[in-house]
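Summary for the steering committee. The consortium agreed at its last meeting that each partner would contribute one worked example illustrating the joint modelling workflow. Our contribution is presented below. We chose a case with several input lines so that the handling of multiple components could be demonstrated. No manual editing was applied between input and output; the record is shown as generated.
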Amino acid sequence: PPWSLQRLKAAVHYTVGCLCQEVEEDKDVQFSKQSIAAISEITFRQCGTAWVTSGYLGHAKRSTINTEDVKLLARRSSSLLKYITQKSDELASSNMEQKEKK
Amino acid sequence: ERRSSSLQHKSAPFSCAAGQKQNSSRENWSLSPEEYETWDRLYRIKEGDGIKEPVLPQTRFATLENLEEIPGQGAARQLSLCEWSLWQSRPFPTALVGHSEPCHHFIRVMEMMEQMRQQQGDCSYGQQLQPHLRLEDVNIPRKKRRLHTANS
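What follows is the complete predicted structure of the assembly.
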């Protein structure tokens, strides 16, 4: 099958492993394979519930998810919200530049 | 002990204030003098009580600059969300509110970690997923690719 949950999980697991490796080098710690597996599983499950918990499904009347909806996911922490908002602004301005070039 | 016995009887803090007399004076957001007296006598934590003020842990990001101020918590008792982790691999009883979907996910992951706790070295989770990995799905620079994951 072209897509399966196992395939998605495997991709998340692999990527989490790479990100953990960066943290290992950065913080001089070591993750066991089991802890990487647990982080992967949490990440995988988090992807399924993030939109539900954000209230997005209940409130929005739009069918297209936009950056405001993504920011809503970060609303619980002002630090996280600030970071996501910065990223969102960077993305918006680089998109503008791309359009101007065309 | 006056406190422990009265706490048991009045475990719902508002039950004693639900009488009609109190309701009539219930226009302010703050406590009435009678309510204040009740709170002060039965529920308020005082210095001589020998227990620490309970506080919830603050959100902190290890990987981001933190905007939230962390108050000093010298005399407070920080409520722990991980001290009883061994209890959390099954659903706890509910009263009126059922467990949410995220809560069930949490329980499942705790269960999974409990099963992996005994494993050394190789990881069954990674071994089961490894045949399903397609490198076109992952967006990692080639030099950073984690070799041992692919052969574990």
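The helical segments of chain B are 2-9, 20-24, 33-43, 101-116, 124-129, 147-151. Confidence is low (pLDDT under 50) at residues 1-20, 148-152 of chain B.
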